[in-house]
């Protein structure tokens, strides 16, 4: 929905000649509501209009007073202060949230664009690391946020399913592995074998040769090597998919690194033909010294291609075959240089989409101060973390609401939601710490707090029995300050979505829904809903229903369930 800010900006644009899109961003919510609901500082127009800001503000005040929904416009200093016509505005926002909450959030700005989002991308036969968890959570949210905004999104899982590691996996499995044990617990068992391989290789370095031998066999199509490799992939994927199901995460494509095995020659040939390949210590690289970057390695001295080459082939694939005009990579901040190099090489190759490639980086997450998985020895497994969160959630729910019907289902939504929300409420670049007692605190800035607020709204509506009936804000009711604060929050849904999308930052949506919940809970505690008399009761019920819709949508967008009861 075009927000009231847009209506104001359009009118101001007509008067000042400045672009409306810039004016929208100048409009503020004054910290002190006495001053009005919205304010526009006019200092920026002074130079070009050759008038002082106070005069501009007062001219604009005259002009804007006539706009639908604006109750009062006045100039103060260089500021234009605007007060909205509360009941008309309440009706329009509540109506939107009730009729089509999608329109409250979205102006479908992405129509006509296709975005490929690369997220999760764990490595086969290794535990799901913290980077993969954060990538999965942030990526899934970005996918949903962008779809809501009208983009066509292709979600891609760029699985790590190729490389010398698999030679070692095969060698270790052939030496010490057992089919039954692996089947039961593929990722843990295969990783155990892999760790053992490294340990034993320290005393028996000839093991490394065996690993290399098997990787070469794999590359050359050796039957048994390929069968084992496929099997490792199938078993690991099965385990990962279990985790994705728990997290409620989906992909449009599973295209692992091996998918590009036969698609890299074309890139290498093109690089060579364009004179971009140079030799460096036996390897073939693209020299990026002119851009203050180390060379991008395309082919190692032994002729094998590497990570970057696969990413170049994958980028072309996403553009040409998947039809993406924008490429997004949700990958840990430690790979910053890798993506700078890949994007630069795409640019040197003349790919016009190179300008629309973004590395969406994020920081570490620690679990009770520990890293999720480390190279050897100590490993915290994601599924254990999720299971414990679900168990704890169940314990809390049983205590709070022993008669709740679907306790297991709700515990799953709450436990998983707690993990997801804890990740997303912080700006992604920052490090995240995870402690069960914090993330499951129903009174903190947590997933359970937001879900509980949603369930509270559902419960009011259930008791009123109005769930099926269409409600709306009766125009004869003038919202009081508490209701008004909530309505203004609901009205900001569109701004939250646009910013979250433009900055690839789901935390904008997570913080938005927290604000909505704070405003709703204040309303709930201050203003009797069911005990009020009509038309006030009808107004408050409509506002409750509108809020419920907005919270449910926001939760969906960041990947959380919204149970009706908890
Ligand atoms: N297109 C990409 N490079 N995506 C990210 C892949 C992440 C890689 N599997 C890793 O664990 O480090």
Quick overview:
Helix content is 55%, strand content 10%.
Number of strand elements: 14
Main CATH class of the largest domain: Mainly Alpha
How large is the radius of gyration?
28 Å
Strand order of the largest sheet: 6-5-4-10-11
Please outline the major beta sheet.
5 strands, parallel
Mean pLDDT metric: 93
Describe this structure in words.
The protein has 566 residues and is of the alpha/beta class. It has four domains: 4-84, Gyrase A, domain 2, CATH 3.30.1360; 114-157 and 252-365, Rossmann fold (3-Layer(aba) Sandwich), CATH 3.40.50.620; 165-247, no CATH class; 382-557, Orthogonal Bundle (Isoleucyl-tRNA Synthetase, Domain 1), CATH 1.10.730. Helix content is 55%, strand content 10%. The protein has 23 helices and 14 strands. It has helices at residues 4-16, 20-26, 43-49, 53-64, 86-99, 101-105, 130-148, 165-176, 179-184, 186-203, 206-219, 223-247, 264-273, 307-320, 336-348, 382-400, 407-424, 436-439, 447-464, 481-491, 493-502, 507-526, 536-557, and strands spanning 38-41, 70-76, 79-84, 114-118, 152-157, 253-254, 277-280, 283-286, 296-299, 326-330, 357-360, 365-367, 370-371, 432-434. The strands form four sheets. It has a five-stranded parallel sheet, with helices on both faces. A three-stranded antiparallel sheet has the order 1-3-2, with helices on one face. Strands 7-8-9 form a three-stranded antiparallel sheet. Strand 7 and strand 8 form a beta hairpin. The chain is flat and about 85 Å long. It starts with a helix and ends in a 9-residue tail after the last helix. The mean pLDDT is 93. Arginine (ARG) is lined by residues 118, 121, 123, 158, 160, 311, 314, 329, 331.
């Amino acid at each position: 929905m075009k927000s009231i800010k847009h209506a104001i900006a359009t009118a101001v644009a007509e008067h000042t000649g400045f672009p409306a899109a810039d004016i929208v961003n100048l409009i503020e919510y004054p910290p002190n509501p006495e001053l009005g609901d919205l304010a526009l500082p006019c200092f920026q127009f002074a130079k070009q209009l050759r008038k002082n800001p106070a005069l501009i503000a007062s001219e604009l005040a005259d002009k804007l007073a006539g706009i639908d929904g604006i109750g009062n416009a006045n100039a103060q200093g260089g500021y234009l202060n605007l007060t909205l016509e509360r009941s008309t505005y309440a009706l329009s926002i509540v109506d939107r949230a009730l009729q089509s909450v999608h329109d409250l959030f979205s102006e479908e700005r992405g129509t006509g664009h296709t975005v490929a989002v690369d997220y999760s991308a764990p490595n086969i036969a290794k535990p799901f690391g913290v980077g993969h968890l954060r990538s999965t959570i942030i990526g899934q949210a970005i996918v949903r946020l962008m779809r809501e905004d009208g983009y066509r999104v292709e979600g891609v899982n760029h699985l790590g399913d190729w490389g010398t590691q698999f030679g070692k996996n095969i060698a270790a499995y052939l030496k010490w592995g057992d089919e039954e044990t692996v089947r039961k617990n593929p990722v843990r068992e295969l990783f155990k074998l892999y760790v053992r391989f490294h340990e034993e290789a320290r005393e028996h370095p000839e093991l490394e040769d065996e690993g290399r031998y098997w990787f070469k066999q794999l590359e050359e199509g050796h039957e048994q090597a390929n069968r084992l490799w496929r099997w490792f992939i199938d078993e690991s994927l099965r385990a990962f998919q279990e985790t994705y199901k728990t997290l409620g995460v989906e992909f449009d494509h599973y295209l692992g690194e091996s998918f590009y095995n036969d698609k890299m020659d074309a890139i290498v040939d093109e690089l060579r033909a364009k004179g971009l390949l140079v030799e460096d210590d036996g390897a073939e690289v693209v020299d990026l010294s002119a851009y203050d970057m180390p060379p991008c390695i395309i082919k190692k001295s032994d002729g094998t291609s590497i990570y970057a080459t696969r990413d170049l082939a994958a980028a072309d694939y996403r553009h040409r075959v998947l039809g993406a005009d924008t490429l997004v990579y949700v990958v840990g901040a430690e790979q910053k240089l890798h993506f700078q190099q890949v994007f630069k090489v795409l640019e040197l190759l003349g790919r016009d989409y190179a300008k629309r490639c973004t590395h969406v980086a994020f920081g570490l997450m620690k679990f009770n101060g520990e890293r999720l998985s480390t190279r050897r020895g100590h490993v915290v497994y994601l599924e254990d973390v999720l299971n414990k969160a679900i168990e704890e959630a169940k314990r809390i729910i049983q205590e709070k609401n022993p008669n709740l019907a679907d306790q297991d289902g709700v515990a799953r939504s709450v436990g998983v939601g707690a993990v997801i929300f804890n990740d997303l409420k912080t700006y992604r670049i920052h490090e995240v710490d995870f402690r069960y007692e914090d993330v499951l605190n129903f009174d903190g800035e947590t997933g359970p707090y937001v879900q509980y607020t949603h369930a509270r709204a559902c419960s009011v509506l259930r008791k009123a029995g109005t769930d099926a009936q269409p409600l709306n804000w009766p125009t004869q009711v003038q919202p009081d300050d508490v209701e008004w604060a909530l309505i203004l929050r609901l009205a900001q849904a569109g701004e939250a979505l646009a910013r979250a999308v433009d900055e690839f930052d789901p935390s904008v949506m997570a913080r938005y829904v927290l604000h909505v919940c704070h405003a709703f809970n204040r309303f709930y505690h201050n203003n009797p809903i069911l005990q009020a008399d009509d038309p006030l009761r009808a107004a408050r019920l409509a506002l409750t229903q509108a809020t419920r819709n907005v919270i449910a949508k926001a939760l969906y967008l960041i990947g959380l369930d919204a149970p009706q009861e908890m």
